[in-house]
Amino acid sequence: MDFNLSCPIPKSEYDKVLLAHGGGGTLSHQLLQKIFFSQFKNDLLDVHHDGAMFEINGNKFAFTTDSYVVTPIFFPGGNIGELAVNGTVNDLAVCGAKPLFISAGFIIEEGFEIEELWQVVLSMKAAADKAGVKIITGDTKVVDKGKGDKIFINTSGIGVIEKGINIAPNNCKPGDVILLNGRIADHGIAIMSAREGLEFETEVVSDSAPLNGLVESILSLTKNVHVMRDPTRGGIASALNEIAASANVGIEIYEDKISISEEVKGACEILGLDPLYIANEGKILIFVPESESDKILHVMRTHEYGKESQIIGRVTSENPKIVLMKTLIGSKRVVDMITGEQLPRIC
Amino acid sequence: MDFNLSCPIPKSEYDKVLLAHGGGGTLSHQLLQKIFFSQFKNDLLDVHHDGAMFEINGNKFAFTTDSYVVTPIFFPGGNIGELAVNGTVNDLAVCGAKPLFISAGFIIEEGFEIEELWQVVLSMKAAADKAGVKIITGDTKVVDKGKGDKIFINTSGIGVIEKGINIAPNNCKPGDVILLNGRIADHGIAIMSAREGLEFETEVVSDSAPLNGLVESILSLTKNVHVMRDPTRGGIASALNEIAASANVGIEIYEDKISISEEVKGACEILGLDPLYIANEGKILIFVPESESDKILHVMRTHEYGKESQIIGRVTSENPKIVLMKTLIGSKRVVDMITGEQLPRIC
Predict the structure, then answer these.
(1) Boundary-marking domain end, from A161, A196, A217
(2) Is A18 on the interface with B (CB under 8 A)?
(3) Using the beta-carbon criterion (under 8 Å), do B63 and A8 form an inter-chain contact?
């Protein structure tokens, strides 16, 4: 091991990790690119995807990992355990994989209530059953009081990818339309409202849901799907920017097609947040050739988690690597990659 | 989800998670059995193994996960990054699998030095290269200062198991001999000495090492291996107790065959610790039919990580679920499962 290899992020820039390094925006990307990808690079590393893919004896698999550090751990519409299962199920699903097996690694702070642990575990079990996956291996570590925060959960997952499915961020092509399965920003605002004690006429609840069933119903209809992505940390803005950059295409979205609840709009105004950048946990962006979009939309709208599906945009050859939004008033604005940290510890 | 399902650990017993619940002993087992296994139970769950096994289209795989919370993160002989890779490589290897792919999930405390992160990542890369595995997917979360402890790393891993290999804790049979590949307790004492500022004439360094090469050389010689286990948290005493309980056999070990360095013996005396219960990160217990043991020992002793391999004990039909040690003075003593927490955050 050569410790003389010098760190690629110069001290003059950042010498300590900031919350924004975990926010899913520009600083996260810098950390990934310069520290992790530069070292771990190999032919299978999932540089621009939600999971890695590999093949063994002609069988194609997806493999993904996520750690969950959401606070509070219980929030309207879910808790950290359910989120940890759904998040990993969804990361596999958007690779075009059928999720099969999940691991669960717990880092528990000394003093955490056993009753709360029990409720987290119950809801993981329920989420796994709902998604049709098995939790087959696990690990528990306990850290001293003050060295953790109640509970962190890592879930990793393995899924199988049927032959003929080829989904990757750089697969999208000019002319593709972009489908979205419903209202955005509910998860992030549910977390924020729990943290800040905000109250709405109608409670905003997390959209946390397993999306593998929805994906399966689409892929059983057609394998002609180019990209899928669940817009979690950093919201749909960050996901679309990543895809535009990765495929070197332009993306145009239509503000009037992007559904946001009145409560979420109100909360975003109060908190000074842009819903395009807010995390979702039950949403999926799907890039398909225009010719396939009608039948896919139809199937999506008949699914429990796709009733409000819409075409929200399209891929263009103009403005490569740029996401533009046609606003309600008819102008266009650039939707940048987020730079800082809107909402720490949202998932 | 039914939140009325009542928690199986009554409040009168423990209402909060203790450090000992993560120590690999009796309390850890209670937490696993009553909380995790009771809910997650399925046909593939690795209740008594270091990883789970599953089969897809005739291909057999192992899947494992571990979170690393060791403190200090840099210690004599290694750091948390190298440990995270070796630990998961070893968990796969002791399932009889060839480790292929690793995921890396980082939970970083705000304010952690980027330079330290860089060094951790460099050593993960070096460890992965040495073990011949690829890190193919990852995740980074940042938690606020005071809500974590520098860095926690989860690694999950996937390996393939060759046909004809069938290794599981309940496979051992009376008459099997137990092989161990060298000195015990170095890892735990290296960590403790770094924490407590102990100094020895010769520095005690962690034995952290990838064991997949050693395992591969054994399994290419014979597939007639019954059990393998890396005795990490809880040491060889806990590993042997788990195996004895799982296979409903007795285990007898010989004190004069268990190698411990003078420095480690001294440190254990000062700290009031029993080396049988101290974590190792480069050791493996192997249960094989006596008829196979000579040739396996020979192969082990020619390997970089097996030079000091010994037969340290045998499996008996007497005293099921009990581990007995023949001491240096000729008496026998019961080597119990550890109840509390000898060394928190050792891995």
Answers:
(1) A161
(2) yes
(3) no
CA distance B228 to chain A (A): 17
Which residues in chain B are closer than 8 Å to A42, comparing Cβ atoms? 134-136
Domain count, chain B: 2
Domain-ending residue, one of B161, B177, B212: B161
Counting DSSP H helices and E strands in chain B, the numbers are 9, 14
- What mean pLDDT do residues B104-109 have? 97
A254 part of contact set with chain B, CB < 8 Å: no
DSSP A25-91: SHHHHHHIIIIIIHHH--TT--TTSSSEEEEETTEEEEEEEEEE--SSSEETTEEHHHHHHHHHHHH
Q: Which pLDDT score is estimated for A3?
A: 45
Please tell me which of the candidates A14, A64, A141 has its beta carbon nearest to residue B69. Answer: A141
At B54-99, the pLDDT tens digits run 999 999 999 999 999 999 999 999 999 999 999 999 999 999 999 9
Confidence of residue B12 (pLDDT cuts 50, 70, 90): low
Residues A141, A240, single domain; the answer is: no
Kindly provide the ipTM of the predicted complex, given to two decimals: 0.95
pLDDT tens digit string along A135-174? 999 999 999 999 999 999 999 999 999 999 999 999 999 9
Range(s) of the domain holding residue A330: 169-334
Bond prior to B72 in cis (omega within 30° of 0): yes
Q: Is the pTM of this model over 0.90?
A: yes
Give the residue among B150, B285, B151 at the shortest CA–CA distance from B215: B285
> Would you give the DSSP letter of residue B333?
E
Same domain, A177 and A274: yes
For residue B308, being part of any structural domain is answered with: yes
Q: Which residues of A touch B136 (CB under 8 A)?
A: 42, 44-46, 52, 54, 63
Domain check: are B110 and B243 in the same one? no
Other C-beta atoms closer than 10 Å to the C-beta of A164 total 10
CATH number at residue A270: 3.90.650.10
pLDDT in tens, B128-152: 999 999 999 999 999 999 999 999 9
Q: How far is B123 from chain A (nearest CA, A)?
A: 6
